[in-house]
Prior knowledge:
The complex is a heterodimer of chains A (161) and B (186).
Chain A: H1 25-41, E1 47-54, E2 76-79, E3 83-88, E4 91-97, H2 105-118, E5 124-130, H3 135-147, E6 152-158
Helix pairs in contact in A: 2-3
Chain B: H1 37-53, E1 71-72, E2 76-77, E3 83-86, E4 90-93, E5 96-100, H2 101-106, H3 113-129, E6 138-143, H4 149-161, E7 166-173
Parallel strand pairs in B: 1-7, 3-6, 6-7
Antiparallel strand pairs in B: 3-4, 4-5
Amino acid sequence: MAGGGAPVPEGGSGKKSVDFQLNMVPFIDLLSVLISFLLMTSVWTQVAKIDVKQSPNQISDEPQQEKPDEQKLNLTVLIKSTGYSVMAKSAVVKDIEKKGDAYDSTVLSEVLKQQRDLNPSNEELIVTCEDKIPYQEMITVMDIALEYKLTGISVQGVDAP
Amino acid sequence: MAIKKPGKRPFAPWLQENDVLNKGGKKHGGVADLLLTPLIDMFVILVVFLIMNFSATGELVNISKDIQLPKAKVTSMLERAPVIQISPSTIAIEGFKVGDTEDIGKDPDLRVPGLTEKLQEMRKVDEMMHPGLPFKGQIVINAHKDIDFKIVRKVMMASAEAGYTAINYAVLTAGGKKAEGAAEGG
Lengths: 161, 186
């Protein structure tokens, strides 16, 4: 067999052969066992998480007291049925209309990047959704926010007008 | 037609002189050399691929057939926590059904008492099992991607009422990157 093992003898001349065949059988055994183990333990669907802070108005319906901190940016992305609306310091920065049936995440990405560059110390973002918005859209906005290191994400609900 | 002796016959005239057909030809030994190099190459590639896909944590979330998770690029690793499953038909916690999604969606009340009760029970069990340790309040929401936000909001409210304030949304990784210092839950 090719994985023969020991040196091949060179007739009766007495000289040792330089042709050495490595015993491959244990190596193949090891690889077979390893493949079996990895196949049995493999996880084919990679599930991960996006984590958020629970905003206070989700716990209570009572009106929350606003902090009198005027310096706070309060960067907010409102996901409406008509598109996105980015707000900062309670003023609308940009309204991003839908492109057909799809939300324009490219423009949102640019706006969030711009806001991040303007306010590098701010890592907080409030994601506000209307009730009828699909869950995937909220995750898309969070994903874009995390891309620009806006890690302090909180989620709020808002009733559609 | 003459009767021929049975035996091996060449399909082409130039094979007439081949050793295989020639009985009086050179005799081979009984041991055949099997070429193992391609086999080992294939095994090595397979092992490398499987090791790259290997997950030491295993499958923490069982995804049922009627739940299609949303996809995200920037994610962090999932940890063991109670799982709330929201499918288009039912809402369940750790496999126990707490209500129909449609009924809960239609209910004008934002609270889900059945879910809150179940979570409070789980919190008590958790605190009994880990005395002296602070309650982490972590929960995993495993929701279908097309579910209305209203349902997710109600589930979040029920979780918050029971003290589970660190909400983790289960997502499928879309070949992206890991979040650096991803949001602190709570």
